[in-house]
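From the thread on structure requests for the teaching lab: each student submitted one protein with a one-line request. Submission from student K.M.:

"Model SusD-like protein from Formosa agariphila, tokens only."
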Amino acid sequence: MLNSCADSLDITPEDRQSITNAFDDDDELMGFLISIEGYIQRVIKNDSHQAMGAAADRCDNSGYSNLRDLVPATVTSSFYSDWSPYYDIIYLCNLMLENVHQAEGNISQERIDFYISQAKFCKGWMYFELGRIWGNAIITTSTNNFEPYANSTDYEVIAEAINNMEEAYEMLGSYGELTDNNGELLLSKQYGTKGAAAGLLAHIYAWQGSMAELYNWPGISSSEAYEQSIKWSTKLISGEDSGLYNLAIDIPTMLEQNFSGWEPSTRLMASESILEVQRFYLEDNSVGYISPIIERYVTWPVDYNDGTSTIEGAAVTFKFEASTIQNMYKGEDERKETYFYKVDSMATAGHQFSYPYKVSNGVFRVVSQTTGITRMTGLDCNNIYIRLAGIYLLRAECYAKLGNEANAITDLNTIRNRAKAELYPAEGDADIQYAIFKEREKELLMENGRYYDVLRNNYIDTELPPAFALLSDQDIQDGALYLNIGEAAFTNNTLLKQNIYWYRVQ
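Reply posted by the TA:
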């Protein structure tokens, strides 16, 4: 995967003759799967909601500021609203599922099942993304169907994600067991595994239950969805039938194991990481890496070409006041001085902002052979999509919503205890659900997904930028929390309908 290039795969529906010859053996199928994974590397990065929900005291990027202010011209621009890459992946998954049988007799049934499970895993993952980002999206059928598609409802899209992911789970192997076409272990955690599928199902069911409450989804029991999320979370926490994942003993160890190193070989020790988007750096480190939201916070000292003054200018998108971090991580909480660089001493020295250090090493390339000047082109880590600490807190959230406060507190305190933070109830703690939400914010700070955490807990008025508090209940029901559907999606499709809210405000 490190050398994959999705652009090298040029398949169009008219090429049926060439497509039918592309699935005859293990080498061809593995090459096709690598191409799918290459597309995923480009899709799972910074959807607009990541910027909308990112925790920060200041946002100094005009595009992201406009997103956070819900400026219609920005939110509806093609740059922020194009869903076609997600459907490209779904199309390729369907293509594999429809043609993998051609390899029968050439490879074992076990290998055929491997490719089927990977395609279903990727397909379910993409429908989850579509359902969270755009809501009333499209559910496609076969690759031979070129008729217009109408919108499916948001709850139907999420149900499609669940169906594919549960089918994938039954067929997938555990991390450390999967092999490629040459029998070599697949060490990248971007591939589908039982653990990754369980983690996604825990999130999908938690989302389903929460949105059923927010939008009054018909025929869906929130409590049953939360129970399902707990079930899938427990599979990961217990190690039952999904591989063995463990919390690191302390925060420094967690960072060293999980946020240091991007090569697949480094992921063996990252026992807390469940699902990642794999980076791949070319020899000159100039292109080809994922840009997760955390990069929008990082400056000196990770980038040694910067200085302490860099964060004060407009070059860094998201910033935290030093006092914010001091108030967030109180007492002996290890996350203050590991997620950020010398917060207290830097503040005492007069520095207004904190300096993110959760990923402490960058990847640099030489930009001048004459002078040896370098430029940081990325961070030395993968884009971690799900890790076990987040699963503990997701399970705690679902326990709290079901009224099981004792179990919710146990899971919450497991994470606080690991961080050496005060156990619940501590000074300043509110109700248990909000305490869990804030703990997810503290533990997963600068990682993906805070926007969706806010929506699941319906803290829209208080935990998102001020523009969201101005939305009416009707605005929310009309789709203000989803994205506008990009204009290109309407080409030759008279059945597709635009998001009501964004159609109304444009």
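TA comment: The longest strand covers residues 374-379. Residues 1-17 have pLDDT under 50 and may be disordered.
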